[in-house]
From TrEMBL:
The keyword Protein transport does not apply. PROSITE patterns: CARBOXYPEPT_ZN_1, CARBOXYPEPT_ZN_2, PEPTIDASE_M14. It comes from Desulfonema magnum. The keyword Zinc applies. One of its GO terms (molecular function) is zinc ion binding. Signal peptide: none annotated. InterPro entries: CarboxyPept-like_regulatory, CARBOXYPEPT_ZN_1, CARBOXYPEPT_ZN_2, Dockerin_dom_sf, Peptidase_M14, Peptidase_M14_domain. GO terms for biological process: peptide metabolic process; polysaccharide catabolic process; protein processing. CDD domains: M14_CP_bacteria, Peptidase_M14NE-CP-C_like. This is Peptidase M14 domain-containing protein. The active site is at residue 331. One of its GO terms (cellular component) is extracellular space. Residues 88-361 form the Peptidase M14 domain. Gene3D superfamilies: Carboxypeptidase-like, regulatory domain, Dockerin domain, Zn peptidases.
Amino acid sequence: MIFQIFFPVISQAETVFNPHDLLETRINNLTREDLVRLTQMGIDIDGVWETTARAYMLPDRLKELRSLGYEVTVIPDRIRRDSDLIQAYHSYSELTSELKATETAHPDICRLYNIGNSEQGRELWFMKITDNPDIEEDEPEVKYISTMHGDEPVGTELSLNLIRVLTDEYGTDPRITALVNEIEIWIMPLMNPDGYMSQSRYNAKGRDLNRSFPDQNYDPNNTVADRPIETQHVMNWAFAHSSVLSANFHTGALVVNYPYDSDPDPRANYSATPDEPLFIELSLTYASLNEPMYNGSFDRGIINGAEWYHIRGGMQDWNYIWLGCNEVTIELNDIKWPPYSDIPDLWNDNRESMLTYMEWSLRGVRGVITDSVTGQPLNATVTVVSIAHDVFTDPDAGDYHRLLLPGTYDIRFSADGYQTQTVQEVIVGSGNATQLNVAMVPQVPGDINHSNSADLTDAIVTMKLLTGTDIVFPVHKDADLNNDGKIGLQEAVYVLRKISDPEN
């Protein structure tokens, strides 16, 4: 039997939520069946280590679980007991001031955006860093988002450090300069400012932001309706952009977690995407450069989400399924809120990983997709024939960036109102992306499908019969717009239009 019901983690959270009522617990001696049952009960599991799970719940759920025979231990709230843990970290206002100061100091490469306000009215800041921040260019977009859970602040501090490196070392460090010149970088240091200010995992209405996105198995509605306001803002931002690669940062473990987190079978021990080998390589790229992570309690510092524990409504699955963006979840430290004195070492552990992971956006195959007649960029879909996963162009520039491991691929391009085109045997290496631009041929209403195509010689004869005009070689050569060695009737029609009206 496969369960299909999901209960909210916190009852009546939409009306009343006091973060101080929430309990962090350890549940011991669990089987995989127990984890399935707890998930179906709406218990917010936040990590699993062998037979022990970390979970969050209100006191009434604690009593319920104990009455059912579960061994549950409450973990004291050390954050609120030790104010020194909080004071050295950036406050929300200090974070805001630093981001604004950075934009002012580096106006040539920085733009700071408020993509919307939190439940309690705090701005959700996104810093854009690129060499031409006001121009849409043929560049991959990479995003880092941190602290969806307000009690996991390490990623906020590391995000600020990364922003400093990218801005302060631009123009002096060749590698940093190349990153900023070649990539459109977006960094959100704090997605849950309300939770952060109250040292709570949840937002101000008691919602877990990383359980609130559309889910292909349990909530397949790719809309913002009935979602937390912070999730709505991130989704709306993502709909307007074309991220290629992303990561979200957490604490509470030391591992890179890759999709899928969710599976139609809640008992599944693994849930692989069509890009499984690529995700393993992406995850290893990050973990292998972080020695404590790589040599920690997880094999090579990586794990499949469902293999670790199932979650529903996670951001990484949503990015991959609906946006075509490769995203992983990075757990930066076993302790959720460590002393601030640990931040320099944590930065040293993650600096190279954060930069090298970002560079993956420049690999695979890339190009610009345009209308063959007008030359205008298109909103198109790019499919690797052997991998059941689509990516999409940025319609503003028409550029696409398909991350791939080295190999030879057949790649299909499709767009509404245009003939589908397939380019065979595209060779992808281990360095910079293979460039593959495509000019797509518009469909003509009522015309015969492109599959009825003729050899070049036959097409010339057909056009001469229709027009009484000799079609010279350069014209019929250029008419083979999709480079398949043939001219379809739709291509012939466009050649005829050019002959009759060269300015059209």
